[in-house]
Amino acid sequence: MPTVIIRSLPARISTVLIALIALYITIVVWLSDGWGNGLVAAAITGTFSACVWLLWWVPMMRLDNDGIYVRNALNSWTIGWEELTDTRTRWGLLLLTEQSTIPVSAAGRGGLWTAVRRERTVPATREEYLTPSAHVYKTRLDSDDAAHLVELYQEAWRHHAQAEERAYQRQVRLAAKRHQSVPPRTHKPVTGVARHVMTSSWIVIGMCVVALVAGFVMKP
Fold first, then answer.
1. Sign of the C-alpha dihedral, residues 90, 91, 97, 99?
2. Pairing of β 3-6 and β 75-79
3. Rounded to an integer, what distance in angstroms lies between the CA atom of residue 57 and that of residue 6?
4. Residue 68 exposed, middle or buried by CB count within 10 Å (0-12, 13-18, 19+)
5. Nearest-10 Cα torsion for 160, 166, 167, 171
6. Is 24 exposed, middle or buried (0-12, 13-18, 19+ CB in 10 A)?
7. 93 phi and psi angles, rounded to 5 deg
8. DSSP SS3 for 91
9. What is the pLDDT of residues 131-145, one digit of tens each?
10. Is the pTM of this model over 0.85?
11. How far apart are CA 131 and CA 133, in angstroms?
């Protein structure tokens, strides 16, 4: 199955713009009010930019043959395709399993225009996203379109997994007839649901706290 990576393009563009504005403010304060106030400004604008980076740049969802990988600001999840039971999109995309409800920050709610368009049309999904291949596709989708893609991908994955299992069983039978060793499985999908702490995000938060404290302490 292909790999489909979902991220928000407007959020990433906004992150870059905010970082540039923060840099401009820091330079202006540094040149006009001296290095002391410049340090404080750098600490404040840097912390704000880091928060925006965590909330808007970091989130991502990846669909592939192994399962679903969801990365939010502070945590990430790996979900086996067999574990996914349903999706919800009332306030944003939620992936439901028997034990967990997992939010997906990378696919937010669409705006008013999206809602009007969806009343007239069915959510569209590119065929190549569901066709078995080794390609990697990057796209941006709102919560409804992303949920639609996840459901279709899961169904396509099941058909693909069944075809792989039939091919493997044929290899096993052929190896038995020839008195050869059983060939190993070429693909082992993710099973269960695993949650991971985003260590890099917490390191960034710690650095921001240190920068804020240092900026105010070093201010003359």
1. negative
2. unpaired
3. 12
4. buried
5. 150
6. exposed
7. -75, 125
8. coil
9. 888 899 998 888 888
10. no
11. 6
